[in-house]
Amino acid sequence: MTQPLITASDLTKSFPAPGGAVQVLAGVSLTLERGETLALTGESGSGKSTLLHLLGALDAPDSGEITLDGKALGGLNEAARAKLRRQSVGLVFQQFNLIPSLDVAANIAFQARLAGRYDAAWATELAARLGLTELTHRYPEELSGGQQQRVAIGRALAGRPPVLLADEPTGSLDEATADDVLDLMLALVAETGAGLITVTHSERLAARFGRRLHLRRGQVT
Ligand SMILES: Nc1ncnc2c1ncn2[C@@H]1O[C@H](COP(=O)(O)OP(=O)(O)OP(=O)(O)O)[C@@H](O)[C@H]1O
């Protein structure tokens, strides 16, 4: 039997706050299978981004276990977590986090190069399918928000990571553009066989995913 791409069991996470620690996650468990698409919904402040950061090995839970691509995160030091992240996870953030000094082509290639999996033909194809071919020599500041978002998606997918984690990847786009970008993400994920978890506020977009998970008061409902 193949292992799930992600397993998380009983995750808790608190943050310090002026009036005492605030518990953001209070025992969250989930699994993500290969090729599965999961929408993560919940009110603002319900802990969606926090959970995504834990699953992507960007932060560690206070308690609970996570396996990512077959590896337990618990025993890993920061260097080992960073390596696993490079190899196994593509991340798309709401703020894109493109590298200002690199043009579009180099931004798309960046993550794949770090992972040692740069494939020029695939990068070119991705740029074309994301409608970026004419823009490959532009710099992030010369792009619209929607164009930057597409570069961020291309960068996350260029290394064909087994796991793609996206935090409101279409949050700053108008409805029609958001639909197009999501169509493309779902198609590319299906082609690469990756598993996808996307945080979204949109019920309309969440309905397009294979599975949905709703967070409320730090727990899955
Ligand atoms: N690094 C941090 N330090 C302190 N508090 C934090 C930190 N990160 C998140 N929080 C708090 O944890 C709670 C959950 O935040 P999180 O960003 O996970 O929610 P969210 O569901 O993604 O919200 P939104 O939909 O508004 O993006 C919030 O109350 C937030 O203020």
TrEMBL record:
The keyword Transport is annotated on this UniProt entry: yes
Residues covered by the ABC transporter domain: 6-220
This protein's GO CC annotations: plasma membrane
SUPFAM superfamilies linked to this entry: P-loop containing nucleoside triphosphate hydrolases
InterPro entries documented for this protein: AAA+_ATPase, ABC_transporter-like_ATP-bd, ABC_transporter-like_CS, ABC_transpr_LolD-like, MacB-like_ATP-bd, P-loop_NTPase
Gene Ontology molecular functions: ATP binding; ATP hydrolysis activity; transmembrane transporter activity
Keywords, sorted A to Z: ATP-binding, Nucleotide-binding, Transport
Matching PROSITE patterns: ABC_TRANSPORTER_1 (PS00211), ABC_TRANSPORTER_2 (PS50893)
Top-level taxon of origin: Bacteria
Keyword Transport listed: yes
PANTHER family: IMPORT ATP-BINDING PROTEIN, TRANSPORTER, PUTATIVE-RELATED
Identification of the protein by name: ABC transporter ATP-binding protein
